[in-house]
Amino acid sequence: MEDEEVKWKIGCFSCARAVDWGEHYICISRLQRLRSEDGEDKIVEAMASLQVCIYCAARSQFDNLIFYKEVPLLELEEAGFHWFVKHLAGSTEPWALSRGKDNCSLCSSPIRIGDHYTQVEIGEETMDESGHVEVISESLFSLATTCDSCAERYMVWL
How far is CA 106 from CA 29, 42, 125, 133, 154, in A? Predict the structure, then answer.
């Protein structure tokens, strides 16, 4: 018997359904970065804190969703998800939290060259059969920038 390559799919953190290849879903990512002099900050670690299929995202406008997740969501992630779904549906309400990348969104500490920090982003994505994830670039949005101290205090990483 030949070894078959196992292909995994993105799972919705609400309904637990496997998202079909090419189907859009909403993803909140935590990107731990290292601030560099050249402005091309290096991603040191990354994880998805929330993945929601497009059907549950639409349903969230009318129902309270329950999220089955590996790590606790930050309040800003859950609020950001609901804001983003409304934004995709045409709302022009601005995101309330500061989106600057040079200061922590929670404590306002500056992010300096050589500092580690975490960027919390939300976007609409799709994945093909080869496992390649495509971020729909016009949908990518930064929910927050957190300094290392706030990230350690408020976030759980796997």
Answer: 17, 22, 27, 30, 10
Neighbours of 152 (CB within 10 A): 12
Q: What is the pLDDT along the chain (158 residues), one digit of tens a residue?
A: 455 554 678 899 999 999 999 999 999 999 999 999 998 899 999 998 999 999 999 999 888 898 887 778 888 999 999 999 999 999 999 998 866 789 999 899 999 999 999 999 999 999 988 888 888 878 899 999 999 999 888 876 64
Query: Who contacts 115 (Cβ-Cβ below 8 Å, separation ≥6)?
Result: 34, 35, 147, 148
Distance CA 83, CA 24 (A): 18
The vertex-78 CA angle with 131 and 80, nearest 5°, equals: 85
